[in-house]
Amino acid sequence: MLHERRIVLVEDDEIMGASLAQRLTLEGAEVQWHRRIARALPAIRTPRRPIDAVVCDIRLPDGTGEQLYTRLIGTSAPPPFLFITGQGDVAQAVRLIRSGAADYITKPFEMRRFLEKLARVMQPRDHGAAFEQTGISAMARAVDRQAAELARTDQPLMIRGLSGLGKVRLARQIHQSSDRRAAPLIVLDALREEISPAAMDDASRRAGEGTLLIVGIGRLSLSTQDRLAELLRGAAFRLVATAGMGLEARVADGGFRADLFDLLCAHAIVIPPLSERPEDAVWLAVRLFAALNDGRRAGLADPTIEAIRTHDWPGNGRELRARLTRAIESSRESLILPVDLFPERLAADDVKPLSEVREAAERAHIAAVLARTGGQVGEAARLLRISRTTLWEKMQKFGL
């Protein structure tokens, strides 16, 4: 159950600590026992030897378990925490659970119950499973597989693609799935502000043995690139960078160091645009609609799905989110129609009669309800709040 699991025990009580450390070792775990926060913190932030769980007392000589946990979640994704608490500290433990801690156990406790709780809070070691899908197309799945593989390496990495494709999201997932996930992820956004050599020094120091993520690395000045190249020679951190598709041009005109470009290109992920993955555009639209809708609209009409599939999406996922947000807020129908998503297409000579638009929405809605009920007309009529006869007539009219 605990074989070869790496566990940090933070407990200042000698009898309790010795008992737990001995039993965990007998269960096959690798145990590091620390009595103070100051010693436990660097032990937990050990990216080359990631920790599977932390067993931590609430009250410690140099602070509280809550302070230790808060310091960790401020800069990284900590391992699962199982807090040990007395009866008087239960409220604090519950507050920690709401902040993301895994569980707590109240003293005194049976060793069997402690081991069961510890086994439950520990996550499987399949870090690749932590990746969210980029899409359902073959190209998207290839990106996900490559990201999972590169999460297991320490080499500098570049994620490339057009704007709005989720490059930063993927970079964060790679860090969270890597052996450096317990150490900080420090982000420098060169797209939003100029990064000086001094800022690069500070970021590398704060990253420690974690990950330094540079968003829009092509925007760095040559002096900052020079400083980054120097830091990489003896870096403890891992560099992950994002860039658009025009970085080669900057190298050609002397605006970006060729050696830094070659280093990053050795391990690079390219996210294809949505225009090359129409099935992913529809897949993403359905997911975004579910997240944004909050019960306000019934769904996406069939013509809208087709419009999403055929649109070229120059702004990719960011454009799709913006259009869906506006459509959900402004639509006057229960279903989102193409005109809601693409109002600019409603040129004066293309305006359809209101009756035609209403019929299209009504047909799509009836078809959706029939699909939901598995074709059971009676149940569909009940949900639509019309008679079976009326539903039959509409089905005949719309060819359903």
TrEMBL record:
PANTHER family: SIGMA FACTOR, TRANSCRIPTIONAL REGULATORY PROTEIN. Keywords: ATP-binding, DNA-binding, Nucleotide-binding, Phosphoprotein, Transcription, Transcription regulation, Two-component regulatory system. This is DNA-binding NtrC family response regulator. It comes from Albidovulum inexpectatum. The modification 4-aspartylphosphate is found at D57. It comes from the Bacteria. InterPro entries: AAA_lid_NorR, CheY-like_superfamily, Homeodomain-like_sf, HTH_Fis, P-loop_NTPase, Sig_transdc_resp-reg_receiver, Sigma_54_int. SUPFAM superfamilies: CheY-like, Homeodomain-like, P-loop containing nucleoside triphosphate hydrolases. One of its GO terms (biological process) is regulation of DNA-templated transcription. Residues 6-122 form the Response regulatory domain. Residues 133-329 form the Sigma-54 factor interaction domain. Pfam families: AAA_lid_14, HTH_8, Response_reg, Sigma54_activ_2. GO terms for molecular function: ATP binding; sequence-specific DNA binding.
